[in-house]
Specification:
187 residues; UDP N-Acetylglucosamine Acyltransferase, domain 1; seven-stranded mixed β-sheet; 18 strands
């Protein structure tokens, strides 16, 4: 029989109030609370704590506080990833960020989702869909990335966009819902 955590990671319906999951979210909160409370004189300590929270991070991860996430261990980053102030990642399942990803302030990345049918939704159970953001992506401030989305290489996402579907490489997308505004000529 699968644990609730195994169900969560597999993208199945699971109970987020499971004792183990509540404990793991609490541990993540303790870590990001420390990260968010450190002043700029403590960058070395902040970096150490960031890599403790996000164990699967590449080189040169830089996150401006405050930062929020559910677990941290489901976030995987390449090298040279930057997240600006007030980023929130609901990492119920895998969030993969490629190399050279720039994330603007107030960006929200959500893998968690809920059933559309109210009877299932009212059960308190939820499920998730992984998110992949490839290399050289720039996400403008206040953008929202919804569950199950894959963003191709070299994509620019306009500020305030709501990304509800996947997009290919080399495009500028914007809007609610986001759509392709133009192709980017990356020579």
């Amino acid at each position: 029989m699968m644990t609730e955590k195994e169900h969560m990671l597999a993208g199945n319906m699971y109970n987020p109030m499971d004792e183990q999951l509540v404990k793991e979210r609490h541990q993540a909160r303790l870590l990001f609370h420390k990260i968010n409370s450190l002043n700029d004189d403590s960058k070395e300590e902040r970096n150490k704590l960031l890599y403790q929270l996000i164990e699967n991070a590449g080189k040169n991860l830089l996150i401006e506080p405050p930062f929020y996430c559910d677990y941290g261990y489901n976030i995987k980053t390449g090298d040279n990833v930057f997240m600006n102030f007030n980023c929130c990642i609901l990492d119920v399942t895998t969030v993969t960020l490629g190399n050279h990803v720039m994330i603007g302030p107030n960006v929200k990345i959500y893998t968690a989702t809920h059933p559309l049918e109210h009877t299932l939704r009212n059960s308190g159970k939820e499920f998730s869909k992984p998110i992949t953001i490839e290399n050289n992506v720039w996400i403008g401030g206040n953008a929202v990335i919804c569950p199950g989305v894959t963003i191709g290489d070299n994509v620019v996402i306009g500020a305030g966009s709501v990304v509800t579907k996947s997009f290919p490489n080399n495009v500028f997308i914007a809007g609610n819902p986001a759509k392709v505004i133009k192709t980017i000529n990356n020579i």
